[in-house]
Fold this sequence. Notes:
376 residues, seven-stranded mixed beta sheet, 12 strands
Amino acid sequence: MIYLDNAATTPIDDCISEAMAAFLKQNFGNPQSQHWAGRAAANAVVSARDKTAHILGCKPEEVYFTSGGTEAGNAALKGVCAAHGKGSIIISATEHPALIESAEDMRKFGVEVIYVNPDNRGIVSPQTVENAVKDDTFFCAVMYANNETGVIQPVKEIGEICRARNIFYYCDCVQTAGVLPFPTQYCDGIGISSHKFYGPRGFGAMYIKNGSKINRFISGGMQERGFRGGTLNAAAAVGLAMALENAENNRENNNAKIKALRDEFVKRVLQEVKGCVLNGDKTLRVPSNANISFEGCDGANILFLLDLEGIAVSTGSACSAGAVTPSHVLTAMGLSAERAKGAVRFTFGKYNTIEEVEFTIGAVKRAVAKIRNNKK
């Protein structure tokens, strides 16, 4: 079996699951409880928060644990909208559905949603964002790297534009955590999800800059300093912090290995399969991602044939799986519906090998040839 869908999720490292096990069995207490069992879990959460904050480059009280990147995006956008009331918000047209759907939810409450498109490389220019700003704009969301194409955005420049105009800038860093340095100094909010860097699923973290005008998203008890109600998963907090630390400590080596595999795959496929093209900027992208469109093919059919050979890939965001319309990311870049429909996303991870790359290249060639021959 060959797994090339690491942008969707990664396998949890053994050392992470082992560290978490102690807080599922021995130190299983509720972190809010005042007895010995609760204190052990609470101490672990404090340590995990401190470690996460150190890597993010912020204060521990600016870190909130969440169920993942989707909740973080919802909490930031809806929380800021609730605090400001009516006005306008700016959203990249290539954002994750967590932000786009949240924005559409807020439209029902009178918030004006302004979408900004990228160029044909998938890059949202700072000038485009600046041109979209209105007197009543109070929120902007442009992700660090796109989950479908891997294209890296100019977050520093966008953040500076927002800072100068007192606009809350939220940066989805789900695809860049452990891959690129965090742009915390240019952002008011950041979201990450631990299952993207070999940690537990269903858990993430959010940075919210102190002093930000934002309301809580999940009401309940006083967990997360009253910002997010609900019993905290101490084991997952331990797992996230450890996985993030491991990813940061091994970032250079992991990136070099993954990029070499990805580059070899892209080079060979573009050379050996006629009528295919890499989507998105060729250099400004995370090292794992190869989004390729195959002329005369439906990406879903390629996925199916590769799956029959034991190869896991995707046709876009896992959160959009099952959608019958072409990728909103690729069409926002100005690509035709046919090219978008023929796209397949291959995303490499630290456990992939050159032998898997070789086998996948052959499988892609067989799949494309079969589909094209069936159309004759």
